[in-house]
Amino acid sequence: MSSPPKFTLESTGEEVAATFVDEIKGKNVLVTGTSVNGIGCNSASIIAKYANLVVVTGYNEERLKLTEEFIKKETPTANVRRLVLDISSLSAVRKAAAEVNAYPEPIHVLISNAAAAIGPFKLTVDNLESQMATSHIGPFLFTKLIANKLLAAGTPTYVPRIVYVSSEAHFHGTGVNFETLGKPDKEKYHPLETYCQIKSAGVSMAMEVSKRSGGKINGYSCTPGVVLTNMNQKPESLEWMQMIGVMGPDGKPDYEKFKWKSLSQGAATVIAAAFDPSLNDAPGTYLTEDSVADNTKRAAHSADPAQREKLWSMTEELVGEKFIF
């Protein structure tokens, strides 16, 4: 692995993208979960300044139009394509994946950012727990179904990438609860524990997809840091954010206990994971909030090979699809 550029907590997505502009040029990038005032939208907007194509996703056209308007306000010449994707629904995932597979272009980078808000127990149309379905099971199926689009972007000098947006929260707990993964139990559900589980799953999948693809696709995971987004301001999330002290009693960020980052600073690590060429020889790497590759900050339970393999095989069973490269 070559020497990586030096970034800090204050580095912005614009700075990181400018550093890797040669890697971004000509690339087609798909970002899931791109609502305005979110890390996905901000990452897509910055990448769109240089990329050949940026595909943005959302669960309805109205939200997608707002995202496209946001991006084109910054870069009027940006090539933006909207994709309706309700990633919590397996049938909706299949429909969106079919649309992507009909694109004439390959996909060089998939940024798996979509997530459900931390909140009360809720089942999806597939009778899966909402957070787990939106942040792990749906994305797993989507990735599987469009894998050929990623593989088509590979060349002798370029390996396609998948970036899993995780969190330092993945360190808490013991990883995914396999007992409730496909059999949600309201009595055993805890919003914050489930959040930690899905962030652990992202770290595991980055390593496992790298291993199983045999070098055809490189997976990376990252934590963007503590960022004020549309997600953690939702009413159903606020009480839990206050419980762990991230948000104060007044519902505003606690700047004394936590180092808050702007949306652009949060996007910095995502963009580094997607384009930093120093990571080429280190698939499965975890990037910290200052955009530094540091696998010592990766939880042992998330990296455990047996846990990763079990999570992969159980998720295949849940979606009814074998993920074979």
UniProtKB/TrEMBL annotation:
Keywords tagged on the record: Oxidoreductase
One Pfam family here: adh_short
Keyword presence, NAD: no
Single GO molecular function: oxidoreductase activity
Entry keyword annotation includes Oxidoreductase: yes
Domain of life: Eukaryota
InterPro entries reported in the protein's UniProt record: NAD(P)-bd_dom_sf, SDR_fam
Family stated for the protein in its record: Belongs to the short-chain dehydrogenases/reductases (SDR) family.
Protein name, as recorded: Short-chain dehydrogenase/reductase family protein
